[in-house]
Specification:
By secondary structure, the chain is an alpha+beta fold. It has three helices and two strands; from the N terminus they run αβααβ.
């Protein structure tokens, strides 16, 4: 995936500030659910796509 994003066609992807949630972080879903349905908890454990 990183190799594809390095292609010139995707050169502006960093401008979009895309982040992803690693599958391993889903193990903490019970703790995350205590924060409600807002995206703040999800954004705090997500990682920037670079």
């Amino acid at each position: 995936m990183r190799a594809q994003l390095a292609r010139p066609a995707f050169s502006r992807i960093a401008d979009l500030e895309i982040a992803y949630l690693p599958y391993g972080e889903l193990e903490r879903r019970k703790a995350i659910s205590r924060f409600g349905s807002a995206l703040k908890a999800i954004k705090s454990i997500s990682r920037a796509l670079s």
